[in-house]
Structures are given as structure tokens and as C-alpha cells.
Amino acid sequence: MAFQKFAVTPGFGVSGTIFKPNQLALLGSIVGEDAQIEMTTFKQLYVALQEERVQEVQKQLQEAGLEIHPAGFYSKSLIACNFCRGAEDAGLDVAETLDKAIVGHPVPSPLKIGYAGCALGTSEPLLKDIAIVKMKDRYDLYVGGDAKGLKARLAQLLVPGLRAEQLIPAVTRLITDFQQNGKKKETYARYAERISLEKLREVAEAA
Fold this sequence. Notes:
By secondary structure, the chain is of the alpha+beta class. It contains seven helices and nine strands. It has helices at 21-31, 51-63, 87-90, 92-102, 164-181, 188-195, 197-205, and strands at 3-9, 36-39, 45-50, 67-70, 79-80, 113-116, 130-135, 138-143, 156-162.
């Protein structure tokens, strides 16, 4: 019996990325006992079930308000904070737009992008491959974080003080650059170290 895996996320709300109880109950009832559900570190659930049922199940989950994304070597949905400063102050609208722009791009290794609506950084953005921290009405962009292994590291500041309209093009350029120049299974932290901050800054700031 062939199984296919896909990712499920609830999308964004004023409380961040939160599954509602009815969505989880529906997920369990739809996928059935033979399916496998895996909790990931990037706020997605991976669902593996029989290939012949995938299309039908995905349709029902989307009708319940859940989002479906590819699993594996793709850029993940935005890992965001809970917008505790309020939707406007924490930049919920920018985070929603950014999420739609970044998710589901094939990349050499899974790419995690973090977002925090203030300097408290409750979503731990500096442990992500690419990170955005909102500072008043501007956005600081970081790269190269890695939470795994004995050589875990914090992301380094790449471009400070981006305006909202500059942020998404800068992040998408970084994703495209990784797609084109990263080695297979190379983590983004290792890629950033190999390429250098200077080169990545040129990519992010390219007109």
C-alpha cells in the first residue's frame, strides 16, 4: 500500500498559528486509523495516508479552513509569534502576505523562516534559517540560524530597517538564491556560511 505525505497548517490569525479543536477532531476523523500524523518543529502537521485518498481528504480539510502544503524539501509556512502586541503593531498583515509568498518552494533542504512582531522574539526567530523581527515600523532581516546539533547557532543580522514593501522581495530573493546555488541536502546555515553574509546581503538588497 503506497502512502503519500503532505503538510497541514491552520494559517494565521490574531493569536498566531493555532489549530482549532474542531479542525483537529475533523482531521482525525477524516484521515482514518491507517493514516500517520506527525508533529513537526515548524508548526505544521505531516499527514501520511493512502495515495488514492489524498485528493479527497485534502479537499475536506481545505473546506474546514485548513491549508495544505507539500512535505519534504520545501520552504515551510511562516513560523510566527502569537502577535501579543496586537495585530497591527505586530504586523499581522505583513506576516500573512509573507507566508503566502514563501511557502512551498522546492529547496535543497527544508527551509524554515521565522517571524517575530517585536524584539521579545517569542517565536525564537533567530534559531531559524531566515528570520524577520519587526522593530517599530521597520523589519530586521537575519540569516543562518540553526537549532540542531552541537554547533547550534543564532542567525546573524543581514539587513536592518527594511520597510514592509522591501521585506518580501528581499526574502523571496534569498529563497531563489538558495534554490539556484545551494547543494543538495545542504542546510541553509551551512549555505550562508559558505556563501558569506556579504554575498547574501547583495542578494537581499538587489534592485
